[in-house]
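User: quick one, sequence for these tokens?
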């Protein structure tokens, strides 16, 4: 029988771990310590899926085309071409999928698993998107800002459409969220959606959103985002990259915040002047025309009632589609949370942190999400093979971004 030792702080009862697992973690951390690169908290994640023209611009540096496994930086502007799509994976294991003709900025990102802190703000000025949370932290705060307001989410799967000719559309498939703008706020529960015409329009109640309108919008989002299987077939991380990300994860949250607070603020890039989704979002456009998306508008007018009845007749399967979307979101959330937990634990293991720091990260992880214990055991029971030397990046000057390679087109997009 393998002896076990207690680790305090995992809950009311001390958790036990096999000595062999803890010794393996300690040995791996000690071996990696001498090779750990300096922490780089400005690197907030990487690209895991790229089709066609996706560009990134950080600060005043020239814009560069993004390829798979490129670093994504704090305050980087991500823009996509008319046939492009991409997936960003952040250091906390969460993912952000972006469709064509999009403009997105990572406005804030602070993550430290030892302190159980995960905070990020993403700004979307155009495009379709989907956010799926990853590692669960005790102090967790994620915001997605749009022209009509901001969505504050926790442990969620959230998607949306930001287009100049239609109301902003927001859907929460799993978890809870609140959409807020200067005119008011509206809570959203799993499976609910709203449309917001402008920042000066109080957000509607989610219960007032007709299922046919939401189902049509979600169909447009699904057609423009990367295939769902792309989330479960991410490219393998190099040892060097995991070390840098793990080291950045352990930089104190206060230090990360201070570093980002001094960053220069610049205007968002202009949205591409290409086409519009209005033609595919006829119900969203018509619903806005009849004033269906205004909060506290009183009883529905005859015109609104007629519109809802007609939409229901023309889309008899809308409610079934909404249930399907909610079920798929639950699966995405469960899978990404498990994958995100393993990803964070793997990075900390590669970082060269001391066994005590590793134990504290494990304890904080399980306090925030007791189900993470199984993912930690799974990740630490099979430490990486250290027989082969880690793949090294080409040397580059301090603070210089790596040259990006042109991504290959996805065959399905040719």
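Assistant:
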């Amino acid at each position: 029988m393998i002896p076990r030792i207690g680790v305090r702080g995992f809950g009311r009862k001390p958790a036990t771990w096999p000595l062999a697992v803890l010794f393996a973690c300690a040995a791996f951390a000690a071996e990696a310590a001498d090779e750990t690169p300096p922490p780089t908290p400005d690197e907030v994640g990487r690209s895991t899926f790229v089709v066609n023209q996706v560009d990134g611009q950080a600060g005043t540096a020239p814009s560069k085309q993004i390829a798979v496994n490129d670093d994504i930086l704090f305050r980087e502007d991500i823009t996509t071409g008319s046939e492009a799509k991409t997936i960003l994976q952040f250091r906390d294991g969460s993912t952000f999928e972006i469709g064509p003709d999009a403009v997105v900025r990572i406005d804030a990102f602070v993550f430290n698993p030892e302190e159980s802190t995960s905070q990020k703000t993403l700004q979307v000025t155009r495009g379709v998107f989907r956010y799926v949370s990853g590692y669960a932290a005790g102090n967790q705060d994620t915001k997605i800002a749009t022209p009509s307001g901001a969505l504050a989410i926790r442990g969620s799967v959230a998607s949306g459409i930001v287009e100049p000719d239609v109301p902003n559309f927001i859907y929460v498939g799993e978890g809870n969220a609140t959409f807020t703008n200067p005119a008011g706020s509206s809570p959203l529960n799993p499976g609910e959606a709203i449309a917001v015409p402008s920042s000066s329009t109080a957000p509607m109640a989610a219960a007032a959103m007709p299922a046919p309108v939401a189902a049509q919008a979600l169909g447009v989002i699904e057609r423009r985002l990367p295939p769902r299987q792309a989330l479960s077939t991410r490219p393998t991380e190099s040892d060097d990259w995991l070390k840098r990300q793990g080291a950045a994860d352990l930089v104190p949250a206060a230090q990360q915040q201070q570093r980002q607070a001094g960053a220069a603020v610049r205007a968002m890039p202009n949205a591409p002047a290409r086409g519009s989704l209005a033609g595919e979002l006829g119900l969203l456009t018509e619903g806005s025309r009849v004033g269906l998306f205004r909060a506290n508008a009183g009883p529905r007018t005859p015109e609104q009632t007629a519109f809802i009845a007609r939409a229901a007749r023309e889309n008899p399967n809308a409610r079934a589609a909404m249930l399907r979307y909610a079920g798929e979101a639950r699966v995405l959330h469960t899978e990404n949370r498990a994958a995100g937990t393993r990803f964070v634990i793997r990075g900390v293991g590669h970082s060269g942190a001391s066994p005590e720091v590793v134990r504290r990260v494990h304890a904080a992880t399980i306090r925030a999400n007791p189900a993470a214990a199984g993912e930690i055991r799974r990740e630490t029971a099979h430490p990486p093979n250290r027989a082969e030397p880690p793949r090294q990046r080409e040397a580059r000057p301090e603070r210089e971004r790596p040259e990006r390679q042109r991504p290959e087109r996805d065959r399905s997009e040719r």
